Amino acid sequence: MARHNLTLSAVDRAIAFALALVWIGAGLVGTLFGLRNGRWAGLIIGVISLWYGILWARAVQKGRRLHWWESIWPWRRQ
Q: What is the pLDDT of residues 2-26, one digit of tens each?
């Protein structure tokens, strides 16, 4: 079975960086909206969006695609 290339090129890293900025920004807005207006849905979606943005930023920092378990346990080392 052939392994897929897990490393990110410079273009892939730029796209991942842009996605991280968008998701973190949306997460902050959703979280603040949820806290300010007392909407649980906005708060939950905002926190999930923040987590997803942090995962994209982590992919940029590592320079490779992340495995599924790295999104669940980001503090765990290989």
A: 455 688 889 999 999 999 999 999 9
